């Protein structure tokens, strides 16, 4: 079992309604596959099924099992749970998933590659090490001689042999037309011997163990030889006229064309311009004429598709006379005549659906005259329909004529065709489509056989292929007209096999082919699926399942001609094809040939190091890249003999399986035909003379070059040279680099192709020089194809001989100085340790190849080795190629984790985050990538967010990568920013600086990948250090919890200028520093930014309301108790008029213009005292008061101090007495938009209800605080949402506070049980328990909107437009505002649930869910409200009062933080309503939160926004990450 960090894990995210069955996912044995839920599925009960078998069980394709979910945190958390498969068995496997009543909501396939083994010790042969050579088996002679003939492959450096089928061949002698699938062909046994499959198996095993070679052969499932004995005995196995009567018209046409052939051969059409020897365009036109004038009229094919009008009309007449009525259950009462195609396809066999006729043609009365009229209508309609059929058949005949003429043109006239010569009975006009054994019958006699099923069952359709056809459609089945339209390019020696839907449809055929498959899989290591794209998928699937039970690591290759990668994938995924055959011959020039190398494998040079656990990415099929396949034209005919070597070299540099076909290396100058070739391959003889036809050796053709190239190909794959770069040096020269990312060695092959013969084509004499970075260690090989005097090519009668006039001149492993192809130019320095070697070409003639082995410059090599050494502390994958540092710098003496463990969370804020304005406060800024953009953060997250997109795609062209290659600016920015701090942060900076000193001395093209590796290691270590400083809720939490908890680090920091006023010096654990501004010792408590980037620095960083809405989630739940305490006490010190400031402005510039901040503050004090161990002790903490009286100047720290409980008492007492004052400095100086009346602040407790109310219509004292700014729209100085009166959340928060102090007093923790108040000149005492009781009793009477006109509590029934909700306020100056549906009541539900009746609360929450819940946030106003507008645009200034200058900030846009309260309220009340409701609610909550998780993961800010526009659309005016958004979502997860 591999250790977890080395195990390769791939993650496949499941999404609702995502069908990935045409997407290829390739995995290796030993990998783990994890299925995780995408946002659309989170919160649902997903059942995931797969047919991947349990260990030790057999694979059954239709046997699916349910996978169990793993919960890494121990809690059922949908963001982290996964199902996993440990992949140990090769093959193609399916998965699908569903939920609720739907079994399949998505599906896909995975393909697990086989592990191939060779040699006595069963060493693994990696797929990319495969080099294969194809042999036509019939050219190998007797089995005794195979070893000598196949040895050519071994000595040429191949690792796999592909043999065409070894079975008995059919009459045509085509390698792929098999007469008997089960017998080993007797032709391979000499007289007196009878070899069997066992003997072949022994040879294959000997090659595997002694030669280290594997052997595969073809399986042909699609057809059998026309002369197969078993097909005579089992004609049901083919498509005949009995089981496929739809082919009858096509058979008739086929026979007619056969007779036409005889007549043309006999010269009977010469008078019509159609001689036997067809040589011109006019002869082709004559064929068309004869077809249309003689053939088609004689056979009348349309009659097979027509109705006999007279008999149909007669039948109809009888029904009418009998008064028959139509069966409405069949017609559905709809008119329209239906014709039924005769399933037997007889002439005039089609019939009329009489129910449809009776429904359509209804006589006016039963009188004979009306019946006759009706019959006439039908007769006319049927004649019309017959005419339509005639027209359709005419179109088929037109296409048939085109195809026949096209065929004749290719076979007899075309230059690239076979030029068959005159038409004869042996060389017919066109290939026959059906088997037919009779001789000398006239066409008329043959057509009479149609009525004799015992005869027609033997008329079998031949196989072939159809140009541009859909490969997933069977062209012989009903519904296809390929045979009738003559669109089949037919193989007249083979019968197409008819499998039906499964073994039950044709038992003999399935059993026969199963046996054939078992024999093949038993004796070979793999199969090539012949004619794969035409083999029915379910058949190939079944047979390969059989093969894999015999040979589990079966290697499966196929060549597909679908013309589409997506369609290729259908075959690859369903069949588990290991490698798809690709061919270099498909390239029209060297540029395209190079592109294919890049396309078929490897990653770019300098690619990023990918994590072991990463997303499963779709891939293209593994390639088997051949210089030429055995069934294609010979490259020497199409290009030139000299191109064989360089094109082979280009192919062998590909990072995939490669190969060739026997004959290519020996320069056989023609195609070795799979049908006609009967000569034998030459044997291997190391000293064979060049002129020998029956033997080949190292000097034959390009064999010497091929040995070196195959050896190089295997070495590169085995040693991990997985990176590829292709450079088109000029029109004919291609340079391919293979690079090893751990040792940084490269091999560069420079190949000069010769697509045109140099004797007739003028090649450029000058090849441009090349500049090779690094140190050239050696010339691995240099080879040229040269002419020699060995006579010119003459085709041998007995052996498949090649061109003896060419051979290869080759040198291997020589120093650069000894090269005759290149000359060393000068070495230039490109950087600190980057040297570039200039290479000039002296003799790179067309047809030559040179390969260099290159390493980094020795200094650079050392630097990379040392870098890898230090990186190996983070992952063992860096050990290979690592080198210990002889003189390690001090900064690197200690592991990074140790340095990080000394950082505080405030330090980590600096290390990881800080946006541009925070950085600018220190005189810096975030890094700007010229011509691109500025990073979001100065800390590591700024880069990590960008690299997270760049890394998986290896996007080395990205501006960040370009910037890193161009210079050290970014590298130095990262380390210097930290070195300039003091203490542990500087030490982390020095560690990075020391690592970067090595980084700067490696070649620039490697810098992005190693910079990323250093950053990833630093970042992950920093995250570990962060979570170690947090609560167990975070440490043991899901990824989602941890992502959100990072928001605490993001938002909480200490800037150059302190945001919080000082605390009492008597308090312990307060951090101090030397002020960067004054040089004096000062407190440096962290403060909480409201949001980034807009509320992050200066006086706009800290807001009372935002701080205390976010504090529980970001500080208490994450375990930051001391820092939370400090913030609570700092704000307590600023209490004035009984209020906490909204804009803190360090206390000195505070504005006391909000009514809710004090209640949020009190809620946090309560949360602190209940959540933190011994938290109630905060009540006795000394508070240093800045404003002990309302009108005093700010006091010095420590001048006036009192315990926190006194400050709380003051806040409550002032509210009970009533607060009323005018803001200091009222006017434009503190608010440019406010009207004068707005500066008057009022807050009081209504004695009648106990509700805290206040405000007026010119100010906005709650979180919905948008003040109008547009003069043009006349909304300047008017608040959009004054929410004066008693705002619902303030009532809830005050109830929570009062209940809490009552409880505290009862426990002796709070000295006050009420407050003295002066009202109307009298002093009275208000008890807190009385106030608590009053609120409890009066809340629903004041806030519930029942919609019942008789409701005694409803004073304004005319204003009700939504019922079963809670008012947003009570007693607003604009009464209708009370009745607006907004999300604020959910806050009261969470903090004071006792105020609500469970059933009413649930109804209101359902309305809110229906009307207000958006993808990420809550609509701030009911969309049915007339002033609702969901798009916030603060820059727009127009005449629209409700919109101008963002007036609708809280009138529709979807704010995120209320979602937390809505979901928490849902969970609370659902629990009260029982298990089922709670379970449904949990599903909803998870589903909603999954969208936040997705946003959080994708956001470059790693945060949640302040708000979105309607339906979750991005709002450019929103903060990208907002403290309270993160906090309230985290609180929901805590509640879950």
Automatic annotation (TrEMBL):
Residues 1078-1531 form the Glycogen debranching enzyme C-terminal domain. Residues 33-118 form the Eukaryotic glycogen debranching enzyme N-terminal domain. Residues 124-555 form the Glycogen debranching enzyme glucanotransferase domain. One of its GO terms (molecular function) is 4-alpha-glucanotransferase activity. It is found in: Cytoplasm. Residues 701-978 form the Glycogen debranching enzyme central domain. This is Glycogen debranching enzyme. Multifunctional enzyme acting as 1,4-alpha-D-glucan:1,4-alpha-D-glucan 4-alpha-D-glycosyltransferase and amylo-1,6-glucosidase in glycogen degradation. It comes from the Eukaryota. The lineage of its organism: Eukaryota, Metazoa, Chordata, Craniata, Vertebrata. Belongs to the glycogen debranching enzyme family. The gene is agla. GO terms for biological process: glycogen biosynthetic process; glycogen catabolic process. NCBIfam families: glyc_debranch (TIGR01531). It comes from Scophthalmus maximus (Turbot). PANTHER family: GLYCOGEN DEBRANCHING ENZYME (PTHR10569:SF2).
């Amino acid at each position: 079992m591999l250790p977890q960090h080395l195990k390769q894990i791939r993650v496949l995210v499941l999404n609702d309604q995502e069908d990935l069955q045409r997407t290829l996912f390739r995995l290796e044995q030993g990998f783990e596959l994890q299925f995780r839920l995408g946002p659309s599925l989170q919160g649902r009960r997903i059942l995931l099924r797969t047919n991947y078998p349990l260990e030790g069980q057999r694979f059954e394709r239709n046997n699916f099992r349910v996978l169990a979910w793993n919960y890494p945190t121990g809690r059922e958390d949908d963001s982290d749970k996964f199902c996993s498969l440990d992949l140990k068995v090769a093959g193609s496997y399916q998965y699908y998933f569903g939920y609720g009543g739907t079994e399949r909501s998505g599906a896909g396939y995975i393909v697990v590659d086989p592990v191939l083994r060779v040699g006595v010790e069963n060493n693994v042969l990696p797929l990319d090490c495969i080099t294969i050579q194809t042999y036509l088996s019939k050219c190998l002679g007797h089995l005794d001689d195979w070893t000598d003939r196949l040895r050519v492959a071994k000595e040429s450096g191949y690792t796999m042999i592909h043999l065409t089928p070894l079975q008995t061949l059919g009459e045509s002698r085509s390698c792929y037309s098999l007469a008997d699938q089960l017998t080993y062909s007797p032709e391979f046994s000499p007289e007196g011997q009878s070899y069997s499959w066992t003997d072949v198996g022994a040879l294959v095993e000997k090659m595997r163990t002694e030669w280290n070679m594997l052997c595969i052969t073809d399986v042909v499932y699609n057809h059998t030889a026309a002369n197969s004995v078993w097909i005579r005995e089992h004609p049901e196995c083919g498509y005949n006229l009995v089981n496929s009567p739809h082919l009858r018209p096509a058979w008739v046409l086929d026979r007619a064309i056969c007779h036409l052939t005889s007549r043309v051969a006999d010269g009977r059409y010469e008078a019509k311009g159609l001689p036997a020897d067809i040589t011109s365009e006019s002869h082709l036109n004559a064929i068309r004429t004869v077809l249309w004038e003689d053939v088609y009229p004689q056979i009348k094919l349309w009659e097979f598709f027509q109705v006999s009008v007279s008999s149909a009309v007669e039948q109809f007449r009888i029904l009418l006379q009998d008064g028959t009525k139509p069966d409405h259950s069949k017609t559905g009462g709809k008119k329209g005549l239906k014709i039924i195609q005769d399933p037997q396809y007889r002439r005039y066999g089609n019939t009329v659906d009489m129910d449809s006729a009776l429904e359509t043609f209804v006589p006016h009365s039963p009188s004979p005259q009306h019946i006759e009229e009706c019959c006439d209508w039908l007769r006319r309609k049927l004649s019309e329909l017959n005419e339509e059929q005639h027209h359709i058949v005419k179109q088929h005949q037109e296409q048939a004529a085109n195809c026949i003429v096209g065929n004749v043109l290719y076979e007899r006239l075309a230059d690239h065709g076979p030029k068959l010569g005159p038409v004869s009975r042996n060389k017919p006009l066109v290939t026959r489509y059906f088997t037919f054994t009779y001789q000398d019958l006239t066409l008329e006699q043959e057509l009479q056989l149609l009525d004799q099923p015992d005869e027609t069952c033997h008329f079998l359709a031949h196989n072939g292929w159809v140009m541009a056809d859909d490969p997933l459609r069977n062209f012989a089945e009903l519904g296809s007209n390929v045979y009738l339209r003559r669109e089949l390019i037919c193989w007249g020696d083979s019968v197409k096999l008819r499998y039906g839907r499964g073994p039950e449809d044709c038992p003999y055929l399935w059993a026969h082919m199963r046996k054939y498959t078992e024999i093949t899989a038993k004796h070979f290591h793999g199969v090539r699926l012949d004619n794969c794209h035409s083999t029915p998928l379910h058949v190939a699937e079944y047979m390969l399942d059989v093969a894999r039970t015999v040979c589990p690591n079966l290697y499966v290759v196929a060549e597909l001609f679908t013309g589409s990668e997506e369609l290729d994938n259908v075959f690859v995924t369903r069949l588990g094809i290991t490698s798809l055959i690709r061919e270099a011959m498909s390239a029209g020039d060297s540029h395209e040939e190079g592109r294919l190398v890049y396309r078929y494998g490897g990653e770019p040079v300098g690619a990023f190091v990918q994590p072991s656990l990463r997303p499963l990415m779709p891939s293209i099929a593994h390639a088997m890249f051949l210089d030429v396949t055995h069934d294609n034209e010979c490259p020497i005919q199409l290009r030139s003999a000299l191109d064989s070597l360089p094109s082979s070299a280009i192919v062998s540099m590909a990072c995939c399986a490669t190969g060739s076909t026997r004959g290519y290396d020996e320069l056989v100058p023609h195609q070795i035909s799979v049908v006609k070739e009967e000569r034998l391959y030459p044997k291997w003889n190391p000293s064979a003379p060049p002129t020998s036809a029956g033997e080949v050796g190292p000097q034959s053709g390009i064999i010497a070059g091929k040995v070196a190239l195959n050896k190089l190909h295997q070495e590169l794959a085995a040693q991990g040279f997985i990176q590829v770069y292709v450079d088109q040096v000029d029109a004919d020269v291609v340079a391919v680099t293979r690079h090893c990312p751990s040792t940084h060695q490269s091999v560069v092959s420079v190949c000069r192709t010769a697509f045109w013969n140099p004797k007739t084509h003028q090649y450029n004499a000058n090849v441009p020089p090349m500049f090779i970075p690094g140190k050239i260690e050696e010339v691995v090989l240099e080879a040229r194809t040269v002419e020699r005097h060995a006579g010119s090519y003459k085709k041998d009668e007995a052996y498949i001989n090649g061109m003896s006039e060419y051979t290869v001149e080759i040198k291997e492993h020589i120093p650069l100085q000894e090269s005759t192809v290149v000359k060393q130019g000068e070495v230039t320095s490109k950087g600190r340790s980057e040297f570039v070697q200039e290479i000039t070409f002296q003799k790179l003639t067309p047809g030559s190849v040179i390969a260099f082995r290159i390493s980094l410059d020795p200094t650079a090599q050392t630097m990379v080795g040392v870098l890898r050494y230090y990186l190996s502390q983070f992952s063992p994958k860096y050990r290979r190629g690592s080198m210990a540092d002889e003189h390690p710098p001090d900064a690197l003496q200690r592991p990074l984790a140790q340095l990080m463990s000394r950082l505080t969370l405030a330090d980590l804020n600096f290390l990881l985050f800080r946006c541009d304005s925070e950085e600018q406060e220190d005189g810096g800024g975030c890094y700007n990538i010229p011509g691109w953009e500025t990073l979001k953060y100065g800390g590591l997250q700024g880069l990590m967010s960008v690299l997270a997109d760049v890394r998986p795609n290896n996007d080395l062209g990205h501006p960040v990568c370009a910037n890193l290659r161009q210079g050290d600016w970014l590298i130095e920015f990262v380390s210097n920013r930290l070195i300039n701090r003091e203490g542990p942060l500087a030490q982390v900076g020095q560690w990075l600086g020391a690592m970067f000193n090595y980084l700067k001395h490696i070649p620039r093209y490697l810098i992005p990948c190693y910079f990323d590796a250093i950053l990833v290691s630093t970042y992950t270590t920093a995250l570990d250090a962060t979570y170690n400083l947090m609560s167990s809720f975070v440490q043991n939490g899901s990824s989602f919890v941890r992502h959100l908890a990072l928001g605490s680090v993001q938002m909480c920091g200490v800037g150059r200028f302190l945001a919080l006023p000082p605390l009492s010096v008597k308090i312990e654990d307060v951090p101090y520093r030397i002020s960067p501004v004054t040089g004096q010792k000062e407190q440096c408590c962290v403060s909480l930014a409201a949001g980034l980037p807009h509320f992050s620095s200066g006086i706009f960083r800290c807001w009372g309301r935002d701080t205390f809405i976010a504090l529980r989630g970001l500080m208490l739940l994450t375990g930051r108790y001391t820092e939370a305490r400090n913030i609570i006490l700092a704000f307590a010190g600023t209490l004035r008029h009984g209020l906490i400031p909204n804009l803190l402005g360090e206390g000195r510039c505070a504005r006391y213009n909000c009514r809710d901040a004090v209640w949020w503050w009190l809620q946090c004090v309560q949360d602190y005292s209940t959540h933190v161990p011994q938290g109630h002790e905060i009540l006795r903490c000394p508070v240093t008061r800045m404003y002990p009286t309302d009108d005093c100047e700010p006091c010095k720290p420590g001048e006036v101090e009192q315990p926190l409980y006194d400050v709380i008492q003051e806040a409550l007492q002032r509210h009970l007495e009533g607060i009323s004052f005018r803001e200091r400095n009222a006017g434009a100086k503190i608010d440019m938009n406010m009207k004068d009346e707005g500066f008057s602040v009022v807050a009081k407790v209504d004695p009648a209800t106990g509700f805290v109310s206040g405000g007026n219509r010119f100010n906005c004292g709650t979180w919905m605080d948008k003040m109008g700014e547009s003069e043009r729209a006349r909304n300047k100085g008017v608040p959009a949402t004054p929410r004066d009166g008693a705002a619902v959340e303030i009532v809830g928060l005050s109830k929570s506070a009062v209940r809490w102090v009552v409880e505290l007093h009862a426990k002796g923790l709070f000295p006050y049980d009420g407050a003295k108040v002066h009202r109307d000149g009298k002093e009275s005492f208000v008890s807190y328990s009385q106030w608590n009781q009053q609120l409890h009793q009066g809340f629903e009477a004041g806030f519930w909107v029942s919609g019942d006109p008789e409701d005694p509590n409803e004073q304004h029934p005319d204003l009700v437009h939504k019922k079963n909700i809670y008012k947003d306020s009570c007693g607003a100056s604009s009464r209708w505002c009370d009745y607006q549906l907004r999300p604020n009541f959910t806050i009261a539900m969470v903090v004071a649930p006792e105020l609500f009746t469970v059933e009413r609360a649930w109804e209101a929450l359902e309305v809110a869910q229906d009307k207000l819940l958006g993808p990420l946030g809550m609509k701030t106003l009911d969309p049915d409200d007339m002033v609702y507008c969901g798009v916030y645009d603060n820059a727009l200034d127009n005449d629209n009062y409700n919109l101008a200058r963002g007036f609708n900030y809280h009138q529709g846009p979807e704010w995120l933080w209320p979602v937390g309260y809505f979901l928490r309220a849902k969970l609370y009340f659902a629990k009260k309503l029982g298990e089922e409701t709670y379970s449904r609610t949990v599903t909803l909550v998870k589903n909603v939160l999954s969208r936040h998780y997705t946003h959080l993961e994708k956001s470059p800010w790693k945060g949640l926004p302040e708000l979105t526009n309607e339906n979750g659309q991005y709002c450019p005016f929103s903060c990208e990450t907002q403290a309270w958004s993160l906090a309230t979502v985290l609180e929901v997860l805590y509640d879950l």
